[in-house]
Amino acid sequence: MKNLLIFCVLLSMISCSGKKQENQHQQNVKIVKQSEMAALMLKMYEVNLENKSLILQGKQPQDFSKEFLKIHSATLTDPSDRNASFEGFSEFYLDTYQQLMTSSKDSLITNHNKTINSCIACHKTTCIGPIPRIKKLLISSN
Question: Going by C-beta distance under 8 Å and a sequence separation of 6 or more, which residues neighbour residue 86?
């Protein structure tokens, strides 16, 4: 009986300390909200990955995504990054993307790579982290 009582006390102490650690862990977790621009760029990545697949199958990419025009207004993670350079690269991306949509079949790879290289050029100036992932969108011209 005495052993049962000691066992119950130990069990309750262990379960209480586990809850305390769990609550403390939950308090230490910071919730980071994704910016509108980060969400838009993830969408751009998905569409360009789809375009790469279509081009490799010898198909023309789908219509110009009007959602990409939000590149001029989407909230950036760091608002100070929206400067003349960013705006220039944004416009260049939209221009190259539009050219891809109207490309002839023999220039699809070139124009797709031009679009992806416009992303890489912009990211070299501000946010270099995604560059390795973006480079995977390029199509080798072997």
Answer: 122, 125, 126
**For 67-109, how does the pLDDT look when each residue is reduced to its tens digit (9 = 90+)?**
999 999 999 999 999 999 999 999 999 999 999 999 999 999 9
Q: Is the separation of the CB atoms in 36 and 74 below 8 Å?
A: yes
**Domain locations along the chain:** 36-135
Q: Are 44 and 97 in contact (CB under 8 A)?
A: no
Distance of CA 101 to the CA centre of its chain: 22
| Residues 40/132, Cβ–Cβ less than 8 Å | no
pTM: 0.76
The pair of three-digit structure tokens given for residue 52, joined into one six-digit string:
């790469």
Percent of the chain with pLDDT over 90: 70
* Rounded CA separation 40/16 (Å): 44
Q: How far is CA 29 from CA 22, 23, 24, 97, in A?
A: 11, 10, 9, 39
